[in-house]
Amino acid sequence: FRNDRTILSLLDADHTFLDGDLAALYGIPDVTGTAWRRVDGVRHYGRGGILTLGATLAKQSGASRTSPILRGTWVTEVLLGERVPKPPKGVPPLPETAPEGLSERELTELHARDARCSGCHARFDPFGFALEGFDAIGRRRDKDVVGRPIDAAATLPDGTRVEGHHQLATYLAGARAADFQRHVCRQLLGYALGRESQLADEPLLDELQA
Questions:
Q1: pLDDT tens-digit map of 108-124
Q2: How far does CA 143 lie from the centroid of its chain?
Q3: Is the Cα dihedral 143, 145, 151, 157 positive or negative?
Q4: Contact 134/144 with Cβ under 8 angstroms?
Q5: Buried-most residue among 9, 21, 91, 172 (CB within 10 A)?
Q6: pLDDT tens-digit profile of 55-82?
Q7: What span, in angstroms and rounded, lies between the C-alpha atoms of 182 and 193?
Q8: CA 47 – CA 51 distance, rounded (Å)
Q9: Which stretches of 34-155 are DSSP H helices?
């Protein structure tokens, strides 16, 4: 806002803000102490943009494992403004810890095979799969919980193939840029007016987005 930059930089910025503790978690060297400062060139360390923030990744995880479902739902609802229906009644929740021999991704894929669940899961799980290169508290990882190389490839709902968080961010800031911008405008307007946007607000939203 201060520098009139594109809001798409929230998705693909090559900088972040760190103190010594967070830099250690991210694996970014030469940042020490308790003072927060801007650090550029963080894409080299697999960071940059809100998809890679430890807070985002940890909040959308289980207590002890990642959750492609939670992370994918967050991308779908919070970034793209698409509502995800509640799960049908009678569907058992996923266990907090993946059964022995299964990765978090495999556990999610097994759950999504249920005919009652598969249609909705196809809408958001792929976004979460692309973020599997981060563990439950947002650290980078190259192996899953069973020791196999991370599989962060995903075919998104529109058929686009991505590999990992960087390609997902590029996709969101490119092919889905208008959807992201529209949702940000809708949220800002709702915050300003204290209500959800309505059909009569569409001309104003057009102006805001432009």
A1: 888 788 777 788 888 99
A2: 19
A3: negative
A4: no
A5: 172
A6: 999 999 988 899 999 999 999 999 999 9
A7: 16
A8: 8
A9: 54-59, 68-74, 104-112, 118-129
